[in-house]
Structure formats: structure tokens, C-alpha cells
Amino acid sequence: MNRVNIKEASKILESLDFVVIYTHAHPDGDALGSSFALCEILKKMGKRVKVVCLDTLPAYLQFIWDVKGDDFEAQNIVTCDVADMTLLGDYKENKKIVLAIDHHKQNRVDCENLLCIPEMAATGEIIFELAREMNISLDTYIAECLYTAISTDTGCFKFSNTTAHTFFAVSELCRYAPEGNFGYLNTPLFITKSVNKMKFENEIISNMKFYFEGKVSVAVVDTELLKKHSVSDSETGGVEQLGKTLEGVELAITLKEREDGYKVSMRSSDSIDCSEICGHFSGGGHHSAAGCFFKKSADETVTEILSYIEEKGIL
């Protein structure tokens, strides 16, 4: 695997055609926003390209994207915002991934070339820089995709990963917004919720458990809870942040039930490195947001995580 910079990655992209862009399972705003932005950028260059999303698009993101693309046999595979091969789910392409574009501190994608910039708050910021390097003119659609990518991965610019470059990129993107701003995207992305989801989140908070004198919150989202409130798995985006909204909580742990175990998401204050904890359990991510997977019961999963936190003196 060859680590490349923006200029080198741009040259690689310019040389490709018949490109399939893969993003990770259970896609979020950055995964989809960066992927579809890159897709449109490559189309502007005359490339045949499409995005493959292995899961249903979250309801709150369906307002902007259409996953249909040209029908062709893939010759080149590119990934966006994918930190690990396991996140590609049922990925069955027999071709090597030519280029992986990511911003996660720990990247384990099996690829020929890796463009990974952890200093960027979102993969969308990297795509923005690639477009600048390749002198591609943006348009409203690309700007909407990139704004969604960046704003969602920064919590609408509330998280500590928000930098001067983040604001620079967004200020440039605003030039392509219909009225000079993306307020119309913020409503579906950060404000509007269905009544069912509101009740669903309220029950999660009511059932939340606390450890280490209230500094750690643990929430479990199982299939029964989803059925009770008629909420689909794709609508559960944002529940990982619920614990962090509570006073005194420094580490919010959320378990989401899957067929073979639990997907664990962690969100933290600046004093706790989520990626270090999740990395111990073969996961990864960012300092303040990371994840891992346990093929165990919810109780066993929580016990293992809390034991590790205590053993390492994290709290």
C-alpha cells in the first residue's frame, strides 16, 4: 500500500475510468456526501462512474441523493470514508481497491493507494481539496453533498474537530448555495425528527445506565425497541450523541443490536480517546468518535468495555 498526498491522488483519479465508488455500511452524511460529490466531480471530467451503497440510505439523507448510476462493469474501485474492510459488508469485487480516501486515524483498507488525512474533520474536506487540485468547477449539487459531509461529521460545527480549514471549505461551498447559505439543509439534517423517533430517543435516555460516577453513559438499542416505535435502523443516526448531551457525561457508549452481535459507538469529551478504546477491541475511528463490534451479548459487551476503562485508568 502506497500512501499518497492530494496531488498524487488527483493524478490517480485523472487516470481512471469505469470507476465504482464504495462507501461504508450504515452510511452517514460524510460517507454519502463525499462519495456522491466525488462521483459528480469525476463525471465532470468525462468519467463513467457510479456510487455503490451497501445499505439503505438513512431517511434523513434521502432528500438529496439518487444511488442509481450508469450500468457498466467496474474496472477501478475507489472507497470514500471507509476505515476498515469489514465496513464494506458484502463487498465482492475481485478487483483491488485502487484508491482509498479517508480521514480516520486508523485505516485498514486493503488498497493500492491510500489518501488519509486525519487532520481533516471529514472526508468531504478532502474531496473539496481534490476538486481544487484538479481545477474542477463546483456546482450547487456538489456543494450540497460536501456541505452535508462536513457539517454532519462536525456536529454542525460543534465538535472539536472543526478547524479553520473546515470553515474555509464551507465558506467556499456557500458560494454555490442558492441564497448563499445552506440553512435549508440544516433543517432536515439537524432539526426535524418524526414523532416516533422523538419517543424512541426519549426511551433510550430513560433506559440509559451510568457508570464511573456518571461520567460514562451506556445505551442499548435493540430490535424490540425499534419495532416498538416503528423506527427503522436507518433512522437511528444521531442516537450516539444522546449520552453526550447529558451534563457530566464524558464518554457515551451506544450498543446497536445486529444479527451476530452489537455495533458499539463511542462519543467522548477531549480528555478521552475513543479510538484508543475501540482500537483495543479491533475497531477504530477518531479521538472523540469511534466504534467497534462485539459478537457477544449486550451485558458481556458492556462488562468488557468498562473493565478495560477501569484497568487502563481512563476514568
Describe the 3D structure.
Helix content is 35%, strand content 19%. With 315 residues, the protein is an alpha/beta fold. The chain folds into 2 domains: 2-189, inorganic pyrophosphatase (n-terminal core), CATH 3.90.1640; 195-311, Roll (Diaminopimelate Epimerase, Chain A, domain 1). Helix 1 (6-14) packs across helix 3 and helix 2 packs parallel to helix 3 (123-133). The longest helix is centred in the first third of the chain and has 16 residues, at 29-44. The protein is globular, with a radius of gyration of 19 Å.
Largest beta sheet: strand ordering = 1-6-5-4-2-3
Structural class: alpha/beta
CATH class of the largest domain: Alpha Beta
Report low-confidence residues grouped into runs of 5 or more: none
Query: What's the gyration radius in Å?
Result: 19 Å
